[in-house]
Amino acid sequence: SGKVIIITNEEGERQIPCVLSYLDGEEYHGSQAKAQLIRNSKNTITYFKNFFGKKIECASLHISGYSAEPNILDNEIVYTIISGSGNEYEKRIITLNEVMISHLKYLKNCAVEYIGKDVTDSVFSIPPDFSSSQIELLKKCAEKAGLNILQVIKEPVAEILAYSDGVDSLVLADKIFVVADFGEMTSSATVVVCRNGLYTILATETDYNLGGRLLDDCLIEYFVKEFQKKYNLDPKQDLRAMAKLRTECETTKKSLSSSSVCTISVECMFGGYDFYSSINRVRFEMLGRYVFNKMLALVKNVLKKAQTENFDIDEVILAGGSSHIPKILEMFGYIFPEKTLIRTQSSQTSMLSPSDIECYGTAIQASLISSLDKEDISDLINPNITLIPHLLNPIGIVIQSDDKTEFIPIIHSYTVNADGFHVTVRDN
């Protein structure tokens, strides 16, 4: 029917966390793995996507403290998984690449079970700062997982494609976009220009320690102080108590996106005490003020990096799970003029969820190339086509100081033809 349908796993989830957990020889993925953080944290691997294909020094960026810690072995990032207990236990070393392969196999199996037939070809969306070596490594891991990658597209471009009406109207429109993607642990802002149907990334800025998790931390700190004040006990002494509180704080944060007040309940949190409390959206926004300011600064930095001004931007697209938070839309309304269209679910300019649009746009791109053979696809992704320089200033003519005609707009791709007709009148 030409309609994009985002499939689900066996639990009905469309967003599957990049989390793996190992327990008694079994491998768990997604939300099932995330639930293991409470009782099986040391065998649960989180945020592995952030380190994929990067230098080993990046392992030091892991800040969870409540999950398996990455280590370095033979110049590779690895995790140590322990099976058994007491004197009878077994250690297993698993590399980061093996974790990625397992995750991709799981995603493939979910697709196979949903549609009822084998899946071999795929289109991947990748972070805007992904290097060529990371892309090659991803292709190798996908191949070992039984997937052939036909094409990779940058996440911001996929998120722009998600808002197309029948694709043609968006592809042909000359616009400058800002795509702000605020995830759980990573945030990025990208300036993308569309000229003559070609998308070019002018600048991108990524912060691997900025996202919804920091807002969870703000809530955790707030409720820990409440617990300490009420019971004169410090739950930070117990990792399980903090894992339970983190899970509930994440749920509370999501609820505050649609409700002005939310309650929190943690059974047997610490010292035998149950914990109950509530928080309103205004308090939450005050607690997370410095996080929201960092998100806004990320966007301002990328505008400066791309040598563009806020009034140059035609559309802003908010993506990622943290973009559900109303405060983020409110802040963007302060820095962009009224003519700039801000697309997000809470702005009522779209019914698409910010959590879904990357997947949605990638599916659209896959449908566009599904009828092409491999040679045609190779031609489409040739660097001579995809990497095109752009004008930094518009081109036009000036007859008099107050008589200017612009033929070619700013940030237009080479090569371009433009025709114009200009009539001048001087001295009657």
Automatic annotation (TrEMBL):
<keyword id="KW-0067">ATP-binding</keyword>
<dbReference type="GO" id="GO:0005524">
    <property type="term" value="F:ATP binding"/>
</dbReference>
<dbReference type="Pfam" id="PF00012">
    <property type="entry name" value="HSP70"/>
</dbReference>
<dbReference type="GO" id="GO:0005634">
    <property type="term" value="C:nucleus"/>
</dbReference>
<comment type="similarity">
    <text>Belongs to the heat shock protein 70 family.</text>
</comment>
<dbReference type="InterPro" id="IPR043129">
    <property type="entry name" value="ATPase_NBD"/>
</dbReference>
<dbReference type="GO" id="GO:0005829">
    <property type="term" value="C:cytosol"/>
</dbReference>
<dbReference type="InterPro" id="IPR018181">
    <property type="entry name" value="Heat_shock_70_CS"/>
</dbReference>
<dbReference type="GO" id="GO:0140662">
    <property type="term" value="F:ATP-dependent protein folding chaperone"/>
</dbReference>
<dbReference type="InterPro" id="IPR013126">
    <property type="entry name" value="Hsp_70_fam"/>
</dbReference>
<protein>
    <recommendedName>
        <fullName>Heat shock protein 70</fullName>
    </recommendedName>
</protein>
<keyword id="KW-0547">Nucleotide-binding</keyword>
